[in-house]
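Thread: Enoyl reductase (ER) domain-containing protein, structure

OP (GT): Posting the sequence first so everyone is looking at the same thing. Length is 249 residues per the record. Can we get the C-alpha cells written out before standup tomorrow? I want them in the notebook alongside the other entries.
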Amino acid sequence: MKCAMLYGPGKLKIEEVEIPSIKKGEVLVEVRAALTCGTDIKTYIRGHPVLIRSYPSPFGHEFSGVISQVGTGVKRFTKGMKVVAANSAPCGQCYFCKKGYVNLCEDLRLLNGAYAQYIVIPERIVNKNLLEIPDYVSFEDAALSEPIACCLNAVCQSDISLGDTVAIIGLGPIGLILTHLYHLNGAKVIACGKGEKRLELSKILGASFTVDAEEIHDETEEIKAAKKLSNNGRGADIVVEAVGKPDTW
C-alpha cells in the first residue's frame, strides 16, 4: 500500500509498504477520506512534541473509511462497516482521567497514519472512540468529526439562550463551523474575519452580520463595529476566538 511517512519538519515521503497486520482487539480500516488539520500543517512545518514524538512516523489523523479486517475479541464492529475514529483515547485510569479531565490524560493513546491506504485502529481507540458512520453521512463529512466535536464542545459550554449575540473572531474552518452551530442553536452571529469568500460563506452558514477585519486597521474600531451590530448595541453575550493567535485575545 502507499503511505505518507514524515521524516522530520518539511520531510514527507510517499512510500510503498506492506499492509499492516492487526492484533487482538484491533481493526484494519481502508481509508476513504483523509483531511489536513491545522495541527498537521504545523507539525509538517516545525514538528510536534506530543502528536509525533519520533521519526520516521506515519502522518495524518482525521479520516474515515471501511473496516477491512477485524481482530479477535472485537464485538461491536464487523468487516465492511463504515467507520470514523478519533485520533486518541484516554486511559481512564490516571489521576486526571478519574477526575474527569480526560484531555489531560497522562497515558493518552495517539493515532497517526491517516495518509495511507490502510490504517490499524488500536484496541483502546476501538473500544472508546471508533464510531459507525450512518449510511446518509459521506466519508468526507464523517472525517470532519473531530473539528466538529471541538466546536460542539464550545457551543455546549457557552450556555447560550435563544437570541443571544455571539461574535466569532476568525473565519477559518473552526470559525465557520462555529458560525453554523451557533446559528442552529438560535444565536445571532456576528462573524469577524478576512477574505471575501469566507465572509460570504459565513452568511450562507447563518451569520446575521459580518465584519471585514481587513477594512478596519484599529482594533478598537473593530470592536465598535461589532458592538453596533449586537442587540441594543450592548455588545456580544459570547465572544469566541477562533484565530488561534495570542494577538486576537
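GT: Both are above now. Quick notes for whoever picks this up: The first helix runs from residue 38 to 46. Helices lie at 38-46, 95-98, 123-129, 139-142, 145-158, 173-184, 196-204, 219-228.
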